[in-house]
Amino acid sequence: MKILIIGGGGVIGQKLALALARTGHVGGTPISQLTLADVVMPGTVDAPFDVQTRTCDIANPASVANAITADTDLVYLLAAIVSAHAEEDFDAGMKINLFGTYNVLERCRTLDTKPMVILTSSIAVYGGEAEDPLGDHSYPNPQTSYGMQKAVGELLINDYTRKGYIDGRAFRLPTISVRPGVPNRAASSFMSSILREPLNGQEAICPVTGDFLHYYLSPRRCVENLIKAAQLQGADIGMNRVMQMPGKVWSINQLIAAMTNVAGSGPARLIRWDPQPEIKRIVTGWRWDIHADKAERLGLKADLSFEDNIRYYLEDDRP
Question: Which CATH number is correct for 2-173+218-244, 3.90.960.10, 3.40.50.720, 3.40.1620.10, 1.25.10.10?
Answer without folding.
Answer: 3.40.50.720
